[in-house]
Amino acid sequence: MTEPVQDEKLIRNVSDTALWAAVFRAEENERPDALFRDPLAKRLAGERGVRIEKEMKFSGSPKWPWIARTVVVDQTITEEIAAGTDMVINLAAGLDTRPYRMDLPATLTWVEIDLPGIIEYKEEMLANYKPACQLERIKLNLTDGSELRPVLAELGRRAKRALIVCEGLLVYLSRDEVAGLSSDLAAVPSFRQWILDLVSPALMQMMVKQLGTHLEAAGSPMKFGPEEGPDFFVPYGWKPVRVQSMLHVAARLRRLPLGLRLFALLPDKFPAKGKRPWGGACLMARV
Fold this sequence. Notes:
The protein is an alpha/beta fold and 287 residues long. It has one domain (62-286): Rossmann fold (3-Layer(aba) Sandwich), CATH 3.40.50.150. It contains nine helices and seven strands. A seven-stranded mixed β-sheet has the order 3-2-1-4-5-7-6. The protein is globular and about 50 Å long.
């Protein structure tokens, strides 16, 4: 991941969305009332991230869901560590900096799994920074089950109680790929909890209309927005234990734009058959 030439595609591959997310975290970091601090985000986003964020604004790219999701995942990680989690496995970790910015036990093992390009970029950019916990990175294509399963099995043998973190990944996978990943995670006994983000079919259609052109051109179309909502995962070994819409979380955090505040009066739960726009974070537990 190097800085672009001007005639390059805005988003070259799905990993470029991590630069975009880093810009949002950098902007939050600079607020006097920041909900979290991420001093490394600006460095990781770079000029390319700023360009992506600027140009994607014309396609409609609100940052409040990203900020709300970050807060929810931060809180979940803190809670699960207090409950005994000794390993966090971040799938499609992108440019996440939680091992550096959160107050984590030095004994905690944190494993980031992602494509080689983004891990190499991240290692280069953060070479002079020290994480708070024991940080490992694994270069891997998460859609290749034959490559992923033995890695998960080995991590599972090392952990007593592991939390899986999955942000901004599932929407780019097919139903079969999500089902396969869910089953592979459930097959490891020490994988106890899984925090993931999910969108309804109605919201996915909106996202495709607003952002889909850039993502499809990069070979990363959005695919997964199940009408079953969190219950999609039950046949594959996971049950929802806490489901929060980002709309309601953002309203509580005072990050929801004025024009959307009336919508926060709608029910928080996943809409029937996903016919209403809904995006949220789901904490799952083994069935």
